[in-house]
Amino acid sequence: MWRSALLLQLVLGLPLWAQDNVTATTFTPQNCTLDCIRQGTPGCEYCRITRGNIKEALGFNSIQEFGSCIPWPCFELLGEEDPKICQHYVQAPNDVTVESVFEPNPTSETVLVSWKPSYYGIAFLRGFQVSLQVLGGSTVACQLFLFHRNVSLPASHAQRVYKSDPFPGLSLGSQYAVTVMALPVPEEWERFYHSKIFSTRSCEEKNGLEQCKKDWYPKYVEVQQEGTAITVTFNLAPQNLGITSYFSLCYANGLKTYTEIMPDSSKNKTHHSYQLNDLQEGANYTCEIAANEVDAVRKAFKVQVMQIQKEGPRTRSVSASLALILPLGLAVVAIIVVLLAALTRRRPELQMMKRDIKPDIIRQYQDSESQEEMVSLPRSRLTPPRLLICYSSFDGPAHLKAVMQLGAFIQQHMATQVCLDLWDSLSVAEEGSMAWYCRQIRESDFVLVICSRGLNQRFEPSGLEGDDEEADRGLNFGSNAFSSNAAIQLIGEEVGQAKARGQDLSKYMAAIFEYSEETDIPTELRLVSHYMLMSDLPLLFSHLHGVALHRPGGYLKINHISEEGFAKLPAGAALQLTIHEAGLAIGGKTHTSVEEGNKH
């Protein structure tokens, strides 16, 4: 049913994500009775299920940690009246967010979870189950929310924002995993939940540094040095934290110096000064200071111990004479080096002049040669680009084979992840071909439409009797013939709308094989970049990876990514052969149709 709704929406010319402009409405849980939910009363649209509701329905209390969550809640609480409402597929929620809310207890955190339902299966959505678990532990909290049995949400309500009840008592500075599950949950279905890991605020973020004993550290540190005496001054912790002692560690040259600090709060309650002793002269130290508490945050600072010079009168006189002699000696050496360099450089030029050789031309050639370099692929992308290939199914099996070989070559030798319905028949059958295409268009980085003569053909199921054989042959060209052509129509529509809004069109591309013509590219797709394969293979590679083919002093050189070089690879040779065979098959078919037309 929901797949039919998607197809109707496509026929009417509305993109699947055209509801993005709908203003999001927030829904918070309501207090409802199970009778209200089961009878479908409009006043109980989004209801929280309590442990009391579970006991009333099933006759026993659920485990305290699991709250109102039970296995298969839709079947247990709504399935008695109508089991069919709990047997449909509903995809996982989107845009799961976690936000902190007011919590008076300074030692804990309270969070609220919000999300949006998915477009897919929204008409059969029965509710949500939200669970929270600490990472590395067994603590679990769970909440259950149900709609009344008569609700049927349209696709536009996928912009609604649903919220959970608060989850209180979470530890500060800890990591949790929240899972939002769409109900019902049928067997053998994997995309019904969405998990997200988040961290609660630290004590400093929630209460401020002056209120947290574990997170507090000295923010003000000043170092003063007089000879070998080094004095460090720092600010003390607030008295309400109960910190009475501190420590300091200094590191240099593999040695460690520890200093224990015991301030006297009766003399100064805000700052304290202490001495650093037993440090080596001329060494650079990295020091840390912190409260004498377990896992206390440390404040780092630098200390440079100066070298104390101890020289006699004779040493001073020798130093003074050296200070006068050294500059003169250095000046003489510099003059000699300059003269030698000039003579050495002048001699080759004189020899070149005798032989009538122009050094400027040689220098220009060397400079231009040194500027040549190879352009490397950008490494900012952690994963290869995702490419969806769409095609027409009305050009026969030879054309389909060429499309498959092209996808195999791009995936093997062009560092690109290719999505092709011919390779993912299980997911296409599971989701429905139109739903599969819509999801792939949304999730792919690029969409490549292979244009051909059959792209503009339309299949008419109520044809003449004489056309039955031709229609049957068309059906055998691919099980998703109509959905692939409908997806191409959707892509053309999206390109036209993006062009009207002045948006970037680089996501979409069109291409033809050498046996097709430029006129086979639909008008809408002529707005995007289009390529002739395989002569424009380097241009396609450049588009997918965002690298320039040429720039001043540089050029793009990728092994076997060229019109001549791709056929040296086994996958490239197979692709070249299938393109040739498809050209012969399509050319012969066109010649036969022309002869039959002349007979009539």
Key structural traits:
6-stranded mixed beta sheet, 14 helices, disordered N terminus, alpha/beta, 26 strands, Immunoglobulin-like, 4 domains
Characterise the protein shown here:
By secondary structure, this protein is an alpha/beta fold. It folds into 4 domains: 189 residues, Immunoglobulins (Immunoglobulin-like), CATH 2.60.40.10; 92 residues, Immunoglobulins (Immunoglobulin-like), CATH 2.60.40.10; 52 residues; 214 residues, 3-Layer(aba) Sandwich (Rossmann fold), CATH 3.40.50.11530. Helices cover 32% and strands 24% of the residues. The chain contains 14 helices and 26 strands. It has a 6-stranded mixed beta sheet. Strands 1, 4, 5, 8 and 9 form a 5-stranded mixed beta sheet that branches. Strands 21-20-22-23-24 form a 5-stranded parallel beta sheet, with helices on both faces. Helix 8 runs antiparallel to helix 14, helix 9 crosses helix 10 and helix 10 runs parallel beside helix 12. The longest helix has 42 residues. The protein is flat, with a radius of gyration of 38 Å. The chain starts with a helix and ends with a helix. The N terminus is likely disordered.
Indicate the topology.
Elements: H1 2-11, E1 26-27, E2 30-31, H2 34-39, E3 47-49, H3 51-58, H4 73-78, E4 94-101, E5 108-116, E6 127-134, E7 140-146, E8 161-163, E9 167-171, E10 175-183, E11 193-199, H5 203-207, E12 221-226, E13 229-235, E14 246-252, E15 255-261, E16 271-276, E17 284-291, E18 299-304, H6 313-354, H7 359-370, E19 373-374, E20 386-391, H8 397-413, E21 417-419, H9 425-431, H10 433-443, E22 446-450, H11 468-475, H12 481-501, E23 508-513, E24 529-533, H13 537-545, E25 550-551, E26 554-555, H14 570-599
Parallel strand pairs: 1-8, 2-3, 19-26, 20-21, 20-22, 22-23, 23-24
Antiparallel strand pairs: 3-7, 4-5, 5-8, 5-9, 6-7, 6-10, 10-11, 12-13, 13-16, 14-15, 14-17, 17-18, 25-26
